[in-house]
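User: What would this chain look like folded?
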Amino acid sequence: MSDDEQYVEIWGDRVSMRDLVVALAACAAATVAAVVLGRVLGQSEFFWGLGGAVVGFAAAVALVRPKRDVQIVADDDPAA
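Assistant: Here's the prediction, encoded as structure tokens.
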């Protein structure tokens, strides 16, 4: 993670604008493609769109890697 990368706070979490745009574009493109395919096949566009959104989410998960390093530390304080 570079120090000069821009982060924005969304819902109490800091995210990279580049990664956010990549994830949104992947979800939007897959959803639109699935809706168009459903329309061409003459089937329910709603369900095709839902499937496209799931495929887009999977693509976004594959494209954007987490940048957080989470470490579990044992708490030896019995009072807590």
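The chain has two helices and two strands. If you want, I can go into more detail on any region.
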